[in-house]
Design brief:
The chain is an alpha+beta fold. About 40% of the residues lie in helices and about 20% in strands.
Length: about 575
Amino acid sequence: METIFLRILNISITAGWITLAVIVVRFLLKKAPKWIIVIMWGLVGARLVCPFSLESAFSLIPSAQPVPNDILYTDTPAIHSGIAALNSAVNPIISESLAPSVGASVNPMQVIAFVASIIWIVGIAVMLVYTVISYVRIYKKVIEAVTYKDNILICDHVDTPFILGIIRPRIYLPSAMSEQDMEYVIAHEKAHLKRHDHWWKPLGFLLLTIYWFNPVLWIAYILLCRDIELACDQKVIRDMGTENKKSYSNALINCSVSRRTIAACPLAFGEVGVKVRVKSVLNYKKPAFWIIVIAVISCIIVAICFLTNPKTVGSAEKNSTTEQGALVTKWFDYLEAPDEMNWDGGLEINIPEFPNVTFRWYPEKMEAITEKEIIPLPLYTGMPIWNAYFCDLTGDGLPELCSSLSFGSGIIDERIIIYDYANGVSYELEDRGTFDYILRLNDSDGQLYVDKKSYNSNELVASGRLVYEDNCIQIESVEANVMKLSAQQRQLMDKYPEYFGLDASNGLDVYVWEMAEDCYYFGLLPHTEEQRDWLSTELLNLQGVDVDKMRQILSTYNIDENDINIIPWQNPISSYIGVSGK
């Protein structure tokens, strides 16, 4: 039930955007034909009914799923509204107050979702009961109605004309109505039937019954009923002269007495908003052709921009991002030179992706500074914060702040904190008292890697690239499990960590150079189709190992021998010329 409610909630939020768009267009195009505005309300209904939507680059909906399905189970619940300011304001509160506690038997988010879904069901039941009661009350009033002609009936117990019924609709007229008014009223009610308006109002109320908790959709339903009436009026009077329009307006006024009961019943189609309609009738002029064209174009634009979802990174694109890696921007890294740690000062940086934000570092905290406020970044509560990099791990086009820090008193562990500023979400890699996690930049491929070590020791348990998968931060599956490695391989991993956990999806390049007569050294890099410059930093930073060690290193990769490329290289520090590549 909770999952269904979350689905309904997300649809309601996305439909709210198209509702607001229609309200704006309705206000701007006051002279446009009302039938076009009614079609726009139909677009709102389509958004509410359709369980899926196409993706488009033209979509103006900030997020297709503002409340993610995993919010009920994740350790850091957060919304993804698509509006950075809203995420930054709401998510820290949600993450801190509604995150599940370790060892707790109840997840706060699941409790809230369960209670909300129960309230939602109760609200639907109330709306349905109201519909049945209001229908029964009207039906009792018209049970003694007599036929006037065709599907038109006259009743002594009603004061205003209306249509009742969906499959076999009937027009009910008050017996006290004058013959002059009756002519115009019947024309109006028949216009409703031709336009099938007796279907659209009940359908609109049915959708309102499901999405009753959204106040924007209540406004939409009220405006829909008014626009349906205005569109019907325009259909009837478009060829009338001035005198006939006055007589038609008088008929509307005469029918406006005691209409509350009819207007309140979702299955009865009565006359509402008479004051506005009379004014519209008397001032009506056929719209110019260019106004109709603009209105139709506006309707098409609203459909394209609000019936489609924003494009998301598909699975193929995500895999490509994972394989190729994301661009990493280095801010600082005191792990490379711990003695240079500025314990008393602070560092600041501005990045183009967030032009109005300054990120500030202190050894004990991180802040995001805007023109209006200073925002402490969640989870950055340890000391010191050793390094900071910006990298788009989530694939949304905006980088996350990635850092290593020390945490705790007495038991001090090393952990990794990732902060998604665009969405106000924090992620953490930590296992206090069991493992330490260190973030580093791998010079060989320019990507962020994680070294997972046994707590308070240099024993490397795993090493791999930092990735975002399954809505959480992980070490990429290309990792070395100490339990599966020989003692010699573990020693090599401690001494040459840069050669472990490389991206081997496209193969590996083994560079070989001769340092002395019959003395060959080997270095390892991920394969690239473009030939590396032989004096590039990548090659010059290679730490040479002998052939036996390189074989041990290569044995940790699940890779075919044909995907290992042996490349001779003339190392500038070698006095020997002409490498044989043995």
